């Protein structure tokens, strides 16, 4: 392996990361025990000092104090911070994208797309600030008015994952801020530099519009630091993105203190391809959904359920496109598949493939490591034909493995589709409206996202994002997801001189 190439490249990348931080106006962190590596070479970009339990608690205190005032600022005025953030993100789009590439290994187009997703949610939140609607209902009593009012909730704790290090933060933060909440963010300890950049931009946005910069706090560190948000009564909502395993520990702890949780956990997303599908279009969508982001999206396509009549021609197209995918340094033009995040991700992929083959799976293509350096993990996206939906297929392996299953009858395909613990995203490829509607119906896909003729990944921010079953049930970003970030009061106002009781009760 070409150890020297990585050895040469790492100092260049480290230098670039430092100059990007400077471009955002961020202080270069003091060296410490948190080691920030780039998956491009596996080398170290920087080190920084993580928070301690005490500094994390102090950050929660600052957010709690800031909330007391922030909640009284009118929502359209609060939106000024988000508007300024959108401007700064637009100005720094390319630079922030580059930092995402350095830290998370995404190719340029996807990294910049992630920054665009941040700008999109900011725009959504700005409009939303004038639309935090509550219902009014007819009261059953004369001379009474009945209505619902939405109020700010409190401190929102955001725990985010490495794979969308900035967009998922923005989904939460843009909404939380216009809703009148303050935010304490614990990013993945794999991507602390992008977090530092976003935190710096947000503080600058607040200062630029004369708002309190303490509305946003950043705490860095491992799960022990994140646990401060889980267990602190002052954190009214914990919005956590990560594995099902993480959700299983976090959810009961937040519930035990009657806090609110918004969970966005693993997916095991499938697409059904029917005989009427436009195979050319389906193949293109499948390649992006399954191999894009090196299979490291929660919405990545992991299972393909194909009608036996079209499995041959479809797989020919997909495998052909797979063979042409350029895998390598995501900073190089034309590369479509960057590295896996670390050795552990590669080990999980290797083990999953071994188990799949042990279950009778047949390798169609890919799966092998692409040499780049000893400490970085590049792989060719894999396709495996499976005789059945075995245990390994029902698990989420955060790597580019596409398992292919076949079906004869659509009901059977839908049963297979739903027979996994996760319920995030799903697709059907068909030109038959009956099949499409069957998939979208109540007894069709059981996922939070169900698409027709597009892949499972790459959702727009305008719809609610999230999934069912082990995916955790949370909804983030568009539609009415904002309601998770607010508390609702039902108000009954008596403007009469009488005191009629509800349900016709007399009490004299
Ligand atoms: C994630 O992988 O955690 O729909 C989020 C998508 C992106 C968001 C993915 N808009 O693929």
Secondary structure layout plus pairing:
Blueprint (H helix, E strand, L loop, with lengths): L2 H21 L10 E4 L6 E5 L4 H18 L4 H17 L1 H12 L3 H21 L7 E2 L6 E9 L2 E5 L7 H12 L3 E5 L5 H17 L7 E3 L4 H9 L3 E7 L2 H13 L3 E5 L4 E5 L5 H13 L9 E7 L3 H14 L18 H16 L3 E4 L3 E2 L7 E2 L2 E4 L5 H4 L6 E7 L2 H9 L3 E2 L1 E5 L3 H8 L8 E4 L11 E2 L2 E2 L6 E2 L8 E9 L14
2-aminohexanedioic acid binds next to loops.
Organism: Nocardia bovistercoris
Pfam family, one: Aldedh
GO molecular function: aldehyde dehydrogenase (NAD+) activity
Unreliable residue stretches: none
The overall strand count is 23
CATH homologous superfamily title of the largest domain: Aldehyde Dehydrogenase, Chain A, domain 1
What's the architecture of the largest domain in CATH terms?
A: 3-Layer(aba) Sandwich
User: Which fold name fills CATH's third level, the topology of the largest domain?
Assistant: Aldehyde Dehydrogenase, Chain A, domain 1
Integer tally of domains: 2
Which ligands appear in the coordinates? Answer: 2-aminohexanedioic acid
Strand content: 15-25%
Strand order of the largest sheet: 12-15-16-11-10-18-19
* Helical content (DSSP H or I, runs of 4+): 40-55%
DSSP helical segment count: 15
CATH class of the largest domain: Alpha Beta
């Amino acid at each position: 392996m070409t150890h020297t190439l990585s050895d040469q490249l790492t100092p260049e990348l480290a230098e670039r990361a430092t100059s990007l931080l400077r471009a955002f106006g961020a202080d270069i962190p003091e060296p410490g025990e948190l080691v920030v590596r780039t998956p491009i070479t596996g080398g170290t970009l920087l080190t920084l000092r993580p928070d301690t339990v005490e500094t994390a608690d102090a950050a929660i205190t600052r957010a709690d104090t800031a909330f007391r005032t922030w909640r009284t600022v009118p929502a359209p005025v609060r939106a000024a911070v988000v508007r300024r953030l959108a401007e700064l993100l637009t100005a720094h789009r390319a630079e922030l994208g580059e930092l995402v590439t350095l830290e998370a290994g995404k190719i340029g187009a996807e990294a910049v797309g992630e920054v665009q997703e941040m700008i999109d949610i900011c725009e959504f939140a700005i409009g939303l600030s004038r639309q935090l609607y509550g219902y009014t209902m007819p009261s059953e009593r004369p001379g009474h008015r009945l209505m619902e009012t939405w109020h700010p909730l409190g401190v929102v704790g955001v725990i985010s994952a490495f794979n969308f290090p900035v967009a998922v933060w923005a989904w939460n933060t843009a909404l939380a801020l216009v809703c009148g909440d303050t935010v304490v963010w614990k990013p993945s300890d794999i991507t602390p530099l992008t977090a530092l950049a976003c935190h710096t931009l947000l503080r600058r946005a607040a200062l630029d519009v004369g708002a309190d910069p303490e509305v946003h706090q950043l705490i860095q560190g491992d799960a022990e630091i994140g646990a401060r948000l889980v267990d602190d009564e002052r954190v009214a909502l914990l919005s956590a993105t990560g594995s099902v395993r993480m959700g299983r520990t976090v959810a009961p702890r937040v519930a035990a203190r009657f806090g609110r949780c918004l969970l966005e956990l693993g997916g095991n997303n499938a697409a059904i391809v029917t005989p009427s599908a436009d195979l050319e279009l389906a193949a293109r969508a499948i390649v992006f959904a399954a191999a894009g982001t090196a299979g490291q999206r929660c919405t990545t396509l992991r299972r393909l359920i194909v009608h036996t009549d079209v499995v041959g021609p479809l797989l020919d197209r997909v495998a052909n496109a797979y063979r042409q995918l350029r895998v390598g340094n995501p900073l190089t033009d034309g590369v479509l598949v960057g590295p896996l995040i670390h050795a552990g991700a590669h080990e999980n992929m290797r083990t999953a493939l071994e188990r799949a083959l042990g279950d009778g799976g047949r390798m169609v293509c890919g799966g092998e490591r692409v040499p780049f350096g000893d400490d970085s993990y590049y792989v060719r996206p894999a396709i495996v034909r499976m005789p059945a939906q075995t245990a390994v297929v029902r698990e989420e392996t955060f790597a580019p493995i596409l398992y292919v299953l076949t079906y004869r009858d659509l009901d059977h395909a839908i049963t297979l589709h739903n027979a996994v613990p996760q319920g995030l995203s799903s697709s059907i490829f068909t030109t038959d409206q009956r099949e499409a509607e069957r998939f979208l119906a109540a007894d069709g896909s059981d996922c939070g996202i169900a698409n027709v003729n597009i892949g499972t990944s790459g959702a727009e921010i305008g719809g609610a994002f999230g999934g069912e079953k082990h995916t955790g049930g949370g909804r983030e970003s568009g539609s009415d997801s904002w309601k998770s970030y607010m508390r609702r009061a039902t108000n009954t106002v008596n403007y009469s001189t009488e005191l009629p009781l509800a349900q016709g009760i007399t009490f004299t």
